[in-house]
Design brief:
Blueprint lengths: L2 E4 L7 H10 L4 E3 L11 H6 L7 E4 L2 E4 L1 H11 L13 H31 L7 H21 L14 H10 L13 H11 L2 H12 L1
Parallel strand pairs: 1-2
Antiparallel strand pairs: 1-3, 3-4
Helix pairs in contact: 1-3, 1-6, 1-8, 3-6, 4-5, 4-6
The structure holds glutathione.
The site of glutathione has 10 residues, from loops.
Length: about 210
């Protein structure tokens, strides 16, 4: 048994993969694609009955839901050099949870609409008006994040980079095709750039290019 992460990196599997690289974990990457039916085979459905990637199999402990996978790995394993990506205190843990749930409930759907309708879908199927509407709705939660970062804090939870930064940046990174969406959110833009420039993120993305 070993630690396995299922799902191509150019998908929500990028979240646990990013965490695994931050932590310096040894793991087996199984680049299951989301298209073409690989997530609907009987064997895969035994891992995740929802038929989605990612899945983490940690020596027999099965985790699905990408944010749960990221939070689980951060809680379960320390950083290679010591310390943790998880919250260390109740206050930090609260910050990790609230920002992660915020990303999923307040931002993810609209951020995905922006990505799909500006960059991912074939051009003839894109609906620019859907991207525009989603981008307009996102200004409300993005203003909340801008405010959170306005007292000089460099990260979302506590004084250091945590899994909360991974979880939120993995969603807001989908806005990169439309930089104008962050034009009046300089603190969010700078924080996002710092997160996405991290070596571990680049390593996880590079897996995507290989898969
Ligand atoms: N809420 C789930 C969504 C998972 C999800 O929709 N994954 C996509 C790839 S990013 C997928 O597996 N799609 C294949 C399918 O639904 O058949 C999570 O965050 O893990």
């Amino acid at each position: 048994m070993s630690l396995k992460i299922y799902g191509i990196a150019a998908s929500r599997a990028g979240r646990p993969l990013w965490v695994a690289h931050e932590l310096g974990l040894s793991y087996e990457h199984i680049p299951t694609p989301y298209a073409g039916g690989a997530t609907r085979t009987p064997d895969f459905l035994k891992l995740n009955p929802n038929g989605h990637i990612p899945v983490v199999d940690d020596h027999g402990v099965i985790v699905w839901e990408s944010m749960a996978c990221a939070l689980y790995l951060a809680q379960r394993y320390p950083l290679a050099g010591g310390g943790s990506l998880a919250g260390n205190t109740p206050a930090e843990q609260a910050d990790v949870l609230r920002w992660t749930f915020w990303a999923v409930t307040e931002c993810e759907k609209d951020a995905l609409a922006v990505l799909m309708h500006t960059a991912v879908m074939p051009e003839d199927r894109r609906k620019p008006e859907l991207a525009q509407e989603a981008g307009a709705r996102l200004q409300v939660p993005l203003a909340v994040l801008e405010q959170h970062l306005s007292d000089g804090r460099p990260h979302l939870a506590g004084e250091r980079f945590t899994v909360a930064d991974v979880c939120v940046a993995s969603v807001l990174g989908w806005l990169q095709p439309v930089p104008a969406l962050l034009a009046d959110k300089p603190l969010v833009a700078a924080w996002l750039k710092r997160c996405l420039s991290r070596e571990a993120h680049k390593q996880a993305r590079a897996l995507g290019r290989k898969a």
